[in-house]
Write a structure and sequence with these properties.
Blueprint (H helix, E strand, L loop, with lengths): L24 E8 L3 H12 L4 E4 L16 E2 L7 H8 L1 H25 L6 E8 L5 H14 L4 E3 L12 E9 L2 H14 L3 E3 L4 E5 L4 E5 L4 E9 L16 E12 L8 E4 L6 E6 L4 E11 L6 H15 L6 E11 L6 E5 L3 E8 L5 H16 L7 H4 L9 H14 L19 E7 L2 E7 L5 E5 L10 E3 L4 E3 L6 E3 L4 E3 L13
Helix pairs in contact: 1-5, 1-7, 2-3, 3-7
The chain binds flavin-adenine dinucleotide.
């Protein structure tokens, strides 16, 4: 495995970058965040003649979690239909399936209309049993049959080496190269009169009519509507954070002989589950395998997790070659397994959010873009109630309470000791938490031995960050904010970096 992490999709394309915002401007719609959710929203609204601007904190759009995806385009709900139907009822479970199917259709329609070369193809999806998974498969069959969704029972998945027992085949899923797709979408936004500013972090949004987005450098965008598509919202009311739980998920890409594995999506019934697909690289075909999820900031065995994924893959695909890429990223789970898309809670009439991807952010971001665009355009959308961010989740109360108990427990880190007593115990290239009296420092020692000391307190809501040795980042276990080894924000909801501690 290479020593540093990299996504299999990394793609340098100047079309992904735009000049930073350098003044005060006015548009019909401001979109904050240029991942699949934000770019698709801007594209759809630009197609309707709206003037749109996309503001993204990173140097290039599609450089957030979208760059770290495995890009299954699935309509089969990750949390499984039996659970969604139990919590939200049959009609909502049926609509959830339809919404993700519609999202795959929309991606295909855009690709055909705009002639985008992004390796898109329709594929089957297979759910196969992991250890003790046969009961799960049986339950799912009962629900799928009751809901009238299209599936087929098969004796085993089409793996070359391992027949894992009865599985379910779902038609009409898909796969693509997300960065090729979104690079073209960025170009199309501009072609239709839209504007993209990168290196432009937004730190505050004022709701109203119009709304105003304020950037870190003191500029503003005034717009009739603002869409916060920043993966997890940094300024859309505190209530949303009680419904969002941040998880890290891992992926590896192994070289495989061309045509060795059927182009299909595979995932098993384990918790966390494994997911598999193939993809064309520039010089090889890859088997992409993901899984090993855990709550953000609550594990430090990243290397072992990638190794377990590799061992799992080699057992089932023994002809696999070297692991050329390994990486990780975040997904945001909701208590009922469905996203939070629509008007921000708390009477913020012109402020919209797309969040809570529930591990299905490619389709979720796309259906979120369609839904939010419809709301802005004053159109009805049959999925609005399914995804309303203000919805109550009585059926998911147990999960909601468990996740929030876990969140509360993280604040106990204020009382524990440090991981090491002094920086001299930290090897070069690593970080650790050190306690100084009542406070805690996040201390990183770079490859040359220089020590960088910061407050360990997450500026979002005061969690104590944890060192992530796999990605060399500081991760907050409370709401999923992530910071570089030197404390810069890499992922919200925090909008400020870790506070540097000057040594006197
Ligand atoms: C390893 C892995 C595998 C996955 N596999 C799949 C899969 O197979 N299928 C699937 O459907 N989903 C998958 N997902 C989930 C999916 O990749 C994500 O949910 C999706 O990419 C999120 O898109 P987004 O547009 O919401 O967020 P992002 O892509 O993260 O975009 C948000 C953007 O907002 C910007 N931003 C953040 N804060 C600010 C701010 N304050 N001001 C300005 N800009 C800001 C960021 O720079 C970023 O560019 C996977 C995720 C991971 C990590």
């Amino acid at each position: 495995m290479p020593t540093t992490t990299s996504s299999v999709w990394s793609l340098d394309n100047p079309i992904r970058t735009g000049a930073p915002l350098a003044g005060n401007t006015r548009y019909d719609v401001g979109v904050i965040g240029g991942g699949i959710a934000g770019l698709t929203t801007a594209y759809l609204l630009a197609c309707e003649g709206k003037s749109v601007v996309v503001l993204d904190a990173k140097p290039a759009v599609a450089g957030g979690e979208t760059e770290f995806t495995t890009a299954h385009l699935a309509w089969v709900i990750d949390d499984r239909f039996a659970r969604v139907a139990l919590i939200r009822g049959d009609e909502t479970a049926r609509l959830a399936a339809k919404s993700h199917l519609t999202a795959i259709d929309l991606i295909e329609e855009i690709i055909k209309r705009e002639n985008i070369a992004c390796d898109f193809r329709r594929t089957d999806g297979y759910l196969f049993p992991g250890t003790d998974g046969n009961d799960i498969i049986r339950d799912e069959v009962v629900t799928l049959t009751r809901l009238g969704l299209i599936f087929e029972r098969v004796d085993h998945v089409p793996f070359p080496a391992v027949a894992t027992g009865p599985a379910l085949r779902f038609p009409d899923n898909g796969q693509f190269h997300p960065l090729k797709y979104l690079s073209d979408i960025a170009g199309l936004i501009r072609k239709k009169g839209g504007v993209i500013h990168t290196d432009t972090q937004v730190v505050k949004v004022e709701n109203g009519s119009p709304c105003v987005a304020h950037t870190k450098l003191g500029h503003t965008v005034t717009a009739g509507a603002i869409v916060i598509a920043t993966n997890t919202p940094f300024d859309a009311g505190p209530s949303l954070h009680f419904k969002l739980a941040a998880y890290v998920t891992y992926a590896i890409a192994l070289e495989v002989p061309a045509g060795h594995v059927s182009p299909a999506l595979f995932w098993d019934t384990e918790d966390p589950y494994h997911y598999v697909r193939t993809a064309h690289g520039t010089d090889a075909e890859f088997l992409i395998v993901g899984g090993e999820d855990h709550k953000t900031g609550q594990a430090q065995d990243q290397q072992e997790r990638w190794e377990r994924l590799e061992a799992w893959a080699r057992k089932r695909f023994p002809e696999s070659g070297p692991a050329r890429h390994h990486w990780s990223g975040q997904v945001f789970e909701t208590p009922d397994g469905l996203g939070l898309i629509g008007r921000a809670p708390g009477f913020r009439d012109n402020l919209y959010v797309i969040t809570g991807d529930s591990g299905m952010g490619m389709t979720h971001g796309t259906l979120g873009a369609r839904l939010v665009s419809d709301l802005i355009l004053g159109r009805t959308n049959e999925f609005a109630g399914v995804y309303s961010p203000s919805r109550w989740m009585p059926g998911a109360l147990k999960t909601l309470l468990e996740e929030n108990a876990n969140l509360a427990a993280q604040y106990g880190d204020w009382l524990t000791g440090g991981e090491v007593k002094s920086a001299s115990e930290i090897p070069n290239g690593h970080g650790a938490i050190i306690r100084h009296g009542l406070s805690k420092s996040a201390v990183y020692k770079d490859d040359k031995g220089q020590v960088h000391e910061m407050s360990a307190v997450c500026p979002h809501l005061g969690g104590i960050v944890q060192w992530n040795p796999g990605e060399k980042s500081w991760d907050c276990p409370c709401h999923g904010s992530r910071f570089s080894c030197k404390g810069d924000v890499q992922h919200g909801p925090a909008v400020e970096g870790l506070k540097a501690i000057e040594k006197t």
